[in-house]
Structures are given as C-alpha cells and as structure tokens.
From TrEMBL, chains A, B:
Signal is among the record's keywords: no
Domain of life per record: Bacteria
Record field: transmembrane: none
Protein's name according to its UniProt entry: Transcriptional regulator, TetR family
Transcription keyword on record: yes
Database matches in InterPro entries: Homeodomain-like_sf (IPR009057), HTH-type_TetR-like_transc_reg (IPR050109), HTH_TetR (IPR001647), MftR_C (IPR041347)
DNA-binding region: 29-48
Domain HTH tetR-type span(s) in chain numbering: 6-66
Length: 192, 192
DNA sequence: TAGGTGATGACAGCGGCTGACATCATCGCT
DNA sequence: AGCGATGATGTCAGCCGCTGTCATCACCTA
C-alpha cells in the first residue's frame, strides 16, 4: 500500500470530469480541480503535465495493449493482418464496464476543440506505435505508415460506433469496420 | 491597395519561421516575433488566434481545394473515387515552388510536439470536410467517415514522401500511395 | 477639412505552467 | 523507540500565452 492516499490521479480525473461536464473545460481552472480533492494547483501539475492530460490518464494501457497485439501477430502476417491483430488487442481495453466512463469522457471532449486535438494526437501516437512494430517486422516505411494510419482510421470510426451502440462489443464493431474498409477499397480506381 | 502595410500575416509568418528554426518554437515568444517585424505582441494575436497558428496561415486554400475536389467528382463516383478526386485537387496546392517553404516549415514542426498536434488537428478537419462532402452525396455515415480518414492517411504518407523526394510531384506520389492502399487491403482478412 | 473606418499601441489581468525550497508523513534500519 | 531516507505535497515567485478595453493614428470618403 502507498504511503499517501492512493489513486490521486484517479481522484483528480474524476473531479475534473465532473467539473468539465458541468462548467465546461475552459471555465474550469486547474486550481479548482485540485481544490475539489483537497490538493493545490501545483500538485495537479505534478501528476499531469497539462490540464488536458487529466482526461487521458490510463490510456497508457491502451498503447501497451496495442503493442502487445502487434507483437502477438503471426510472423508471416500481412501488414493489414497485423493491424487487425492490434485492433483486436485494443478491444480488451474497451470492456463493457468501461463504456459509461468513455461516454462521459467523450461528451466532454466533443465540447472542446483543445481536447479533440489532444485525442487526435494520442491516436496518431498509437498509429506511430503500430507503424514502428510493422517496420520491425521488415515492412517497408511507406507501407507500414499507411497500414498503421488505416488502422487508426478504423479505430476512430469503430470507437465512435461503440459509444453509440450499446448492443455490440468493440470487437464486433471493429471487425465490421475493417470489413467495410476492405469493401471500400475493393474496386480499383479508374485513374489508378 | 491596403491602407496599411499589406501582408502583415505573411511577414509575421516569415519571421516566426526563422526564429523557430534558430531558437526553437518554445524558446521564441510571440512578442519577439512581433518585434521582429516592428509590431507588438497584441497585434500578433490579432492576426493569429494562437502562437502556433502563425505556421498554418494560408492553409485555408488547401481546405478549399479539397472541397472543390470533392464537388467536382462525378455524381456516380464511389466513395474512394471521391477521395481520390479530393487528393488530386489538393495536389494543386502543393506546387513545386511551395516545396522549399513546406520543407522548412515541416522541419520546425517535426521538432515540436505542440506543432505536430496542431498539424494533425488540421488534417482531421480536412478529413471531416471530405466526410461531410461524402454524406452530402448520400454516402452512409460510417462509410463516409472511414473513406475520409483513409484519404487523410494517404495524404499524410504522400506528403511526407513529397517533402523527401524532389524528383516526383505530389500528384504522382499520391497516386502511388493510393495504389499502395488498394494493394494493402486487397487480400481479405482471415478472421474477417 | 471633417468624419468614418480599421489597424495598431498601451495597459491591466487571468490562467497555464515551472523552478526552487520547505514541510511532513511514512518507511526501513538500528 | 529513534533516526535518516524517501517522496508527495505546500508555498511562493515568476514567465508566457492570451484577452478585454480604451486610446491613437493612418487612411479613405465626402
């Protein structure tokens, strides 16, 4: 057990989410979030490098799930198979219990461009992670980047669907969106 | 002709690019940029909503080229054909004369996460623009979003190549990357 | 020449974020 | 029990990004 009250980042995140939801992101100061859990502004910034980061705490697990998914793909898998493996692994992160929190969090993010920007940034990092994994497997630079970016595209679309559709799991939705991607690009381009 | 010295945003951008390149983005204050062209910090922020925006001045033309590309696509074009049309239109923006500037600008952006974040944000806006155009054509929500995001993926990869490869035009590279996308997704997934 | 318009300057102020130093609770060791 | 090490927190000062407000000044129009 910790010396100090454990879960400080989590408590800050919870308080921040509530304050952002009621007052809005910009109308909430870091000092107010800290005060809500009995801490000071300075301490807030010791736990989070930026005010926005308080909403992204815990996402490291997602990155690692993604990395693991890439690592576990068959050695002879094609780039898109590796990407699919990464997406399946990511499905383990977005469990059913997580959905309410994700929804509340997304509602806040949808209200603020700065937060959307941050979320995109995290997504891009995820893509870079996958691309690096692909390059390690000997996939060419351009192919790796493209496949990873497409994986990001699928993820972004699937995640949005997952938040809306209570009836389907993240894995199901992702599989559908991946299939849709293959359908979309099935016909060759006339001017290709 | 204007009442005041014309091209103030352009002059600020030029000064900013030079200062960012030598000192770095964070080590350069908005006041310094303004002072470099004989203006005050306050005036800088009248031209640019944020310090970062000084590097994105002029990109509205890109958005409009993109929009025009979508509009000019054949009425019966498939989603990916529309995306390809948008990418071709965007090629008109990245002319040969623009390459040196783009390269210098990118070198600065590559050095700073905040700027990378901003660039991704702009790219996402572009994708949203294309997606909206697709929806206007009756393409379903999910398909539109996915196709647009894939277009963004192709653009991101192609742009990187364009900066590196002096010998090829943006249009050529984009066509290649689009072809690569179709190659990547040609084989159906085993678990699809 | 007078008045309108719009870019700029000057100033005050908030909030995000950081560095530096002090404090204090807990842990491990004796 | 006592003691030093460790690490989270508090306190304070300060820079910078960014904004509101009002004054100023250049230029245009009549």
């Amino acid at each position: 057990m910790a010396r100090w009250a454990a879960g400080t980042p989590e408590r800050l995140q919870k308080a921040a989410l509530e304050l952002f939801a009621t007052r809005g992101f910009e109308q909430t100061t870091a000092a107010e979030i800290a005060e809500a859990v009995g801490l000071t502004e300075r301490t807030f910034f010791r736990h989070f490098s930026e005010k926005r980061e308080v909403l992204f705490h815990g996402q490291q697990a997602l990155v690692e799930a993604c990395r693991a998914g890439v690592a576990q793909a068959q050695p002879d898998a094609s780039p898109m198979e590796v990407v699919a493996a990464a997406l399946r692994a990511v499905g383990a992160f977005f469990t059913e219990e997580r959905r309410p929190f994700s929804r509340a969090r997304q509602a806040v993010i949808d209200q603020n461009p700065q937060l959307q920007e941050r979320e995109r940034h995290k997504l891009a990092n995820l893509a870079a992670e996958i691309a690096a994994g692909l390059r390690d497997r000997g996939v060419g630079e351009v192919t790796a980047a493209l496949a990873a970016e497409c994986g990001m595209a699928v993820f972004a679309v699937a995640f949005g669907q997952w938040l809306r559709d209570d009836a389907r799991s993240f894995a199901e939705i992702t599989a559908d969106v991946l299939a849709e991607l293959h359908r979309l690009t099935a016909a060759p381009l006339p001017q290709g």
